C-alpha cells in the first residue's frame, strides 16, 4: 500500500507533526511546510493526500488565520484530533534557567507558557514560526542565555537539553487539529461533528435566530467563532461546529432552515468526532 503524505506547518518535531503521527499512525510520510497557506496548497496540488492544521488551543484560543484559510480554499475538513500539548524549555547543554535572558518559540506556545515564564523571571520572548524551528535556530546559534519552547521530540531531533518539562500554564493544555482533504469524506452516520460557515444580514436578533435553528432541534453546538467579513466593515462570518451528521434528517432540516435567511452558507466538513482526552 503506498505511503500517505501528510502536510503540516513547521519543521520535524513540531506539535502538528506529532498530531499527524498520532492520528494516522507512524507509517505515514510527513511533509513540512513553511506556512499554513502552504499546507492548504500542498493538499490542493496533490503533493500531500492530507493536511493537518491547529485550529484552537484550550489556553491560548483560536488560530484565526486558519479560520480564514478554510474559507479562502476549497478543501474539506475530514477529521479532528486533540493533542495534549506538553511544553519543554530547551537550551544548550549546561545552560541554566537563572541565566536565561530570552525565550523563543511559536506565538501560541509562548502564550501557553506566559505565566510560567514570568514566574521564572524571563520577560523577553521572541516569536518564531514554529516550536521545532525555534530549537533548530537555537542549535545554529549557540547561546546559553537563550532557550526555546517546544516538544520533547523537538529536543531529541536537534539533540538539545531539556531544562524544564511541563511548563504550560495549566495541565489541561490541548490543541485541536483539523485534518484537510481534497474530497469530502462520506458523512459518518453517528458520533460526528459538522463544521459550517455563514453570514447574516445585520438586524436585531439575527444571530439568535440563526442559532435557534439548532436549539429548536436539540442539536448540540460545540464551538462558535466570528471573523471579520473582509470588504464589509462591521459584518462578520460565523463559524459553527455542532454535533451531528449531514446524514441526519434533523441536521439537514436545520441547515435548510438556516439557508432561508443566511446570505451565504458553506459546509466545511462532516467528520468523525474525536473526544477530548482527559489531561
Ligand atoms: O509550532 C508548532 O509546533 C506547531 O505545531 C504549531 C502550534 C500552533 O500553531 O498552535 C501547534 C500546537 C501548539 O499549540 C503550539 C504551536
Automatic annotation (TrEMBL):
The keyword Amino-acid biosynthesis applies. InterPro entries: ACT-like_dom_sf, ACT_dom, Preph_deHydtase, Preph_deHydtase_CS. GO terms for molecular function: prephenate dehydratase activity. It catalyses: prephenate + H(+) = 3-phenylpyruvate + CO2 + H2O. One of its GO terms (biological process) is L-phenylalanine biosynthetic process. Keywords: Amino-acid biosynthesis, Aromatic amino acid biosynthesis, Lyase, Phenylalanine biosynthesis. GO terms for cellular component: cytoplasm. Pathway: Amino-acid biosynthesis; L-phenylalanine biosynthesis; phenylpyruvate from prephenate: step 1/1. It comes from the Bacteria. Residues 5-182 form the Prephenate dehydratase domain. Residues 195-272 form the ACT domain. Its EC number is 4.2.1.51. This is Prephenate dehydratase. The lineage of its organism: Bacteria, Bacillati, Chloroflexota, Anaerolineae, Anaerolineales.
Amino acid at each position: 500500500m503506498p505511503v500517505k503524505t501528510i502536510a503540516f506547518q513547521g519543521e520535524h518535531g513540531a506539535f502538528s507533526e506529532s498530531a499527524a503521527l498520532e492520528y494516522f499512525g507512524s507509517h505515514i510520510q510527513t511533509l513540512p511546510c513553511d506556512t499554513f497557506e502552504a499546507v492548504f496548497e500542498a493538499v490542493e496540488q496533490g503533493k500531500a493526500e492530507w493536511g493537518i492544521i491547529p485550529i484552537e488551543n484550550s489556553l491560548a484560543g483560536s488560530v484565526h488565520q486558519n479560520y480564514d484559510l478554510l474559507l479562502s480554499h476549497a478543501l474539506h475538513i475530514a477529521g479532528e484530533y486533540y493533542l495534549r500539548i506538553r511544553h519543554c524549555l530547551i537550551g544548550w547543554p549546561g545552560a541554566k534557567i537563572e541565566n536565561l535572558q530570552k525565550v523563543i518559540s511559536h506565538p501560541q506556545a509562548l502564550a501557553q507558557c506566559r505565566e510560567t515564564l514570568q514566574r521564572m523571571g524571563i520577560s523577553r520572548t521572541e516569536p518564531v514560526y514554529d516550536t521545532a524551528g525555534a530549537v533548530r535556530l537555537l542549535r545554529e546559534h549557540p547561546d546559553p542565555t537563550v532557550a526555546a519552547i517546544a516538544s520533547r521530540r523537538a529536543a531529541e531531533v536537534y539533540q538539545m537539553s531539556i531544562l524544564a518539562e511541563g511548563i504550560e500554564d495549566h495541565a489541561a493544555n490541548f490543541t485541536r487539529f483539523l485534518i484537510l482533504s481534497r474530497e469530502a469524506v462520506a458523512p459518518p452516520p453517528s458520533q460526528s461533528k459538522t463544521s459550517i460557515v455563514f453570514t447574516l444580514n445585520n438586524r436585531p436578533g439575527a444571530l439568535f435566530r440563526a442559532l435557534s435553528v439548532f436549539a429548536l432541534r436539540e442539536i448540540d453546538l460545540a464551538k462558535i467563532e466570528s471573523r471579520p467579513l473582509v470588504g464589509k466593515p462591521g459584518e462578520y462570518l460565523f463559524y459553527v461546529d455542532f454535533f451531528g451528521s449531514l446524514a441526519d434528517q434533523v441536521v439537514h432540516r436545520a441547515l435548510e432552515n438556516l439557508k432561508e435567511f443566511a446570505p451565504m452558507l458553506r459546509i466545511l466538513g462532516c467528520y468523525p468526532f474525536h473526544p477530548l482526552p482527559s489531561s
